[in-house]
## 1
Amino acid sequence: AQKITQTQPGMFVQEKEAVTLDCTYDTSDPSYGLFWYKQPSSGEMIFLIYQGSYDQQNATEGRYSLNFQKARKSANLVISASQLGDSAMYFCAMSSPNQAGTALIFGKGTTLSVSS
Amino acid sequence: DAGVTQSPTHLIKTRGQHVTLRCSPISGHKSVSWYQQVLGQGPQFIFQYYEKEERGRGNFPDRFSARQFPNYSSELNVNALLLGDSALYLCASSFASILETQYFGPGTRLLVL
């Protein structure tokens, strides 16, 4: 069965520092997508970055990059130059077309706290 | 362009009651998915609809039902509410149903007393 594991309940970083949020996944499907979402205390899930299983290069979106290591089944999110506004819960998710309804499977999340 | 909208934003119900949550997708998106997020957990998939047809159902009891309308908006219905149904209900839309990025609305916070 497909599964997403986020082992870091909380991470603490100072402004302007880089931080890596860990994510490992388990699937037997050859075609899948990996996503990272940010959820502030307001509750809305904000899409950050996407990586397809066949993509050769790591995805980047501004200060966000996804360190995709397919053989290790890991998809870590790297946030460069952290800002106070980055403080939030971060979720790693996977979508697989072979799964019923191509739903997103989420990990338990990592709380990121950025201090000045 | 407007993002995904959901109504109401907050709701308080008592056990045994029925609730209807509503979602309007991003313009041009034909797929809507519903997720339940209880406190301290990641969202759990409930339903996906594409072109008005159910494309997937998560591991939720039959008390949960949904539908999608011709304008691609969607309703989630929950009957015979239980205390455990208290959660944030998130709606997400995407253009298609396969490996497309899902964009989420602000959610509806449901409290069952």
## 2
Amino acid sequence: GDSVTQMEGPVTLSEEAFLTINCTYTATGYPSLFWYVQYPGEGLQLLLKATKADDKGSNKGFEATYRKETTSFHLEKGSVQVSDSAVYFCALSGYAGNTPLVFGKGTRLSVIA
Amino acid sequence: EAGVAQSPRYKIIEKRQSVAFWCNPISGHATLYWYQQILGQGPKLLIQFQNNGVVDDSQLPKDRFSAERLKGVDSTLKIQPAKLEDSAVYLCASSQGAQNSPLHFGNGTRLTVT
């Protein structure tokens, strides 16, 4: 079945450091790919998405590019802030419409001043 | 717009007791999901509704878990009897139901089974 593998955490960075969180997937067909973020005490929020190969999703300074050849969707940010401290989840949705999300295990990011 | 509402926020029960969670999705959202998130893991789908019909319940432990979405609006998830391994956060999400429409999540119910 479909699956998502993302890098283990926790990741601890200093403010203004560069962030990469790796995500690879296994799926049939052409899934849509997502990054969700969970801030402390809050629910999951959609951060960005990409629905086809070579699409780049971006939001709040975060970016991820849908790479079909490497089945990857790595999350990047050029300069992290303390407020980016959260748990980040990579997820995919199957090719057929309205299919549920399959999530990775999540990566906890802590940014220190 | 109002978000997905879930209650209670926290629940502590003893094993073999029963418990119920409630979810009210965003108005007009046809699709409703229940996910289970065990500590340190990503959310795992339990059941998906489209209006008041079940689309996917293949991962729902039907011997102890049940869910319903009467009238295609709010939903309840029940566990009876609970086991220690059911300790988790139970997340409800809703979407408009079109392809690639985003899921909107509630804040979840944290269940502790002792």
